[in-house]
Amino acid sequence: MLDVTDLTLRYGQSQVLHGVNLSARAGEVTAVMGMNGVGKTSLMKAIAGRHPFRSGRITVDGRDLGHPSAVEAARAGIAYVPQGREVFALLSVAENLQTGFACLDRGSRAVPDRIFDLFPVLAEMRNRRGGDLSGGQQQQLAIARALVTQPRVLLLDEPTEGIQPSIIKDIGRVISTLREEGEIAIVLVEQYFDFAVGLADRVTVLTGGQVSYTAEKGGIEREALLGAVSL
Ligand SMILES: Nc1ncnc2c1ncn2[C@@H]1O[C@H](COP(=O)(O)OP(=O)(O)OP(=O)(O)O)[C@@H](O)[C@H]1O
Description:
The chain is α/β, with parallel strands linked by helices and 231 residues long. It has one domain: Rossmann fold, CATH 3.40.50.300. The protein is built from 9 helices and 10 strands. Helix 7 links the parallel strand 7 and strand 8. One of its GO terms (molecular function) is ATP binding. InterPro entries: AAA+_ATPase (IPR003593), ABC_transporter-like_ATP-bd (IPR003439), ABC_transptr_urea_ATP-bd_UrtE (IPR017780), BCAA_Transport_ATP-bd_LivF (IPR052156), P-loop_NTPase (IPR027417).
């Protein structure tokens, strides 16, 4: 599904990613872990067309995306739920969801009922302004908005950050449901260790902008992973 090969990225003279490889498969959760500032968000932004990368390759189902813009990445099936959520505070919940239509053909512009099955709270709050929602509700809205784009690949950047435990559980259930449905490849950037390990089928750890550890389900050793994530 998603394959990132030898990706490098710079901010001016400062190189932040040094030849990063990452693979994500449909029906699996790929966790990307590592300390603050190791380049996790930069990697997500590069994949989502939010920041240009210097060299490397991004493919979805074998198709090379080149250096995609955000719209091109979205049309290729990549949805990005950014750290901090970026919900439109003055738009209603329904309108926030409709912003996901931008990358869809006119005929497919609808919010599927399934979105409200996954996030019942959004049905109740459909007419409320995004800015009136709690942080956890905004996080659910941001994930729902990403799903409206009918993605093949869902990039979640620290979805538990600053969220209360009951909503973290809800978000975990939604990720599990999406995984079981088997259609979407989920990339989960996460510093909440137990949450990430509980969901992950594969783990990639970044240290200083390089992949320092990878493992797949069955081979994910908690102690080794804890050690890798702490570097
Ligand atoms: N727009 C930018 N301009 C310059 N440097 C940046 C920019 N964005 C991030 N950086 C730097 O790039 C490095 C990687 O940042 P990035 O946000 O990708 O890391 P991260 O692993 O996601 O960290 P965190 O967990 O804190 O979000 C950091 O040193 C950061 O200060």
